[in-house]
Amino acid sequence: MNKLEGAWRLLAWLRTTSKGDVSYPLGEDASGLLVYTSSAKMMVQMAAAHRLPLATSDPLGGSAEEQATAYSTSLAYFGSYKVAEGNVIHIIDRSSFPNWSETEQVRPYELRGDELILRTPPSHTGGITVVNKITWIRDKGPVGA
């Protein structure tokens, strides 16, 4: 068993910029689940708390505005992974953010006991550098399970 294998619950997704701005892209009370399997498969889903329901029972329905709000308050993808030189590499099959489908996303990581910290490599837009820090805690499941 590798040290990342298992389920992880989101503690925080923190975004910092070179200008000193700090934000929580899905809010300070976002939730999520990250799973690494023994067969090198992975999946992640994160969502803002208190998301508004759509005015439809069709999971693919709703107005364009409702869909945009729902899309912008969650992130999910699945694929496989590998660990190399202090990085976990997510080899993404499909993502709710289509630009990541069929890509590899490198995440430098730190493992401190039951806490896992993933970072994005610095990205540069308009002269500003952005780094995301996503902190997870190992999910040990329900007591007595």
Automatic annotation (TrEMBL):
InterPro entries reported for this sequence: Lipocalin-like
Lipocalin-like domain: residues covered: 6-138
Domain of life from the UniProt record: Bacteria
Name the UniProt record assigns to this protein: Lipocalin-like domain-containing protein
